[in-house]
Amino acid sequence: MKLSEKIIELRKANGMTQEELASKCNVSRQSISKWEADIALPETEKLLILGEIFHVSMDVLLKDELTLSEVKEVHSCGNNAIQGKKQEVYEGVLIKECEIHCFQR
Q: Contact, 11 vs 68, CB < 8 A?
């Protein structure tokens, strides 16, 4: 699935018009139209904004072999686990994740 098709699908799935998406990306509606028509590509900064708006990675946006149906929201770890929560300070120990072989000797 091409980037242009993903932008269309994600925009519509989020109930947004081209004008609304353009406003969030700080571009013109015509720019969104060109992205969706595969006439132009978004700049890197705009791709990052699109990823944030639609909660998808750059891999999902840019790799043609990845489709949106393969995207699953994960709320158990990483940034997705804390989305929507206010920032808080936590005191404790940070444990770095590592493969099993790290602990085998």
A: no
What is the per-residue pLDDT across 71-83, written as a single tens digit (0 to 9) for each? 544 444 444 444 4
Q: Whole-angstrom Cα distance, residue 35 to residue 99?
A: 40
Sequence-distant (6+) residues with CB within 8 A of 54 are 10, 14
Structure tokens at 48: 């990052």
Question: Residue 48 contacts by C-beta under 8 Å, 6 or more apart in sequence?
Answer: 58
Q: What is the pLDDT of residues 61-72, one digit of tens each?
A: 998 887 776 554
Q: What 3 state SS string does 62-84 have?
A: HCCCCCHHHCCCCCCCHHHHHCC
Radius of gyration of the chain, Cα coordinates, nearest whole angstrom: 18
Q: Rounded to 5 degrees, what angle do the CA atoms 13, 16, 20 make?
A: 155
